[in-house]
Design goal:
The protein is α+β, with helices and mostly antiparallel strands and 142 residues long. It has 2 domains: 5-88, F0F1 ATP synthase delta/epsilon subunit, N-terminal (ATP Synthase, domain 1, Sandwich); 92-141, no CATH class. It is 32% helix and 40% strand. Strand 1 and strand 2 form a beta hairpin. Helix 1 packs antiparallel against helix 2 (113-141).
Length: 142
């Protein structure tokens, strides 16, 4: 019998996923983390990007976008506490492109340092969403 662990992906708005999984890949400040059952305890800051999950009963990886947050790992439980979490199927490419364009324009209008920092964060998030959409497309085509 394959070893498993429990995964919860939650955002401020709602729980996105809760279930039994075999592996989890998450974007952290130090690079992508691969988490497997009985992993050492870990607490890591997440950056905008893709969380990939090999869930029990699914032949394909499940994909989720997180805008940042925290990852907590216990030997048999993994928790993703995301600022924002979106199922891959719910990502909107046109919306991400529009957000990217707005952020780039806002960065060009350096009226206030806080506005620039916010625009920069929005740009990073939009670019991460677009990368994820592109990656998923290449997986489904290949």
């Amino acid at each position: 019998m394959a070893m498993t662990m429990h995964l919860d992906i939650v955002s401020a708005e709602e729980g996105i996923f809760s279930g039994t999984v075999h592996e989890v890949y998450a974007p952290s400040k130090s690079g992508e983390l691969g988490i497997f059952p009985r992993h050492a305890q870990l607490l890591s800051q997440l950056v905008p990007g893709e969380v990939r999950v090999k869930a029990e009963g699914h032949s394909e990886m499940l994909h989720f976008f997180v805008s940042g947050g925290m990852l907590e790992v216990q030997p048999h439980v993994v928790t993703v506490l995301a600022d924002t979490a979106i199922r891959a199927k719910d990502l909107d490419e046109a919306q991400a492109l529009e957000a990217k364009q707005r952020a780039e324009e806002a960065m060009g209008n350096r009226e206030a340092e806080a506005d620039y920092a916010r625009a920069q964060a929005e740009l990073i998030q939009a670019e991460a969403q677009l990368r994820m959409i592109k990656n998923i497309r290449s997986i489904t085509r290949g």
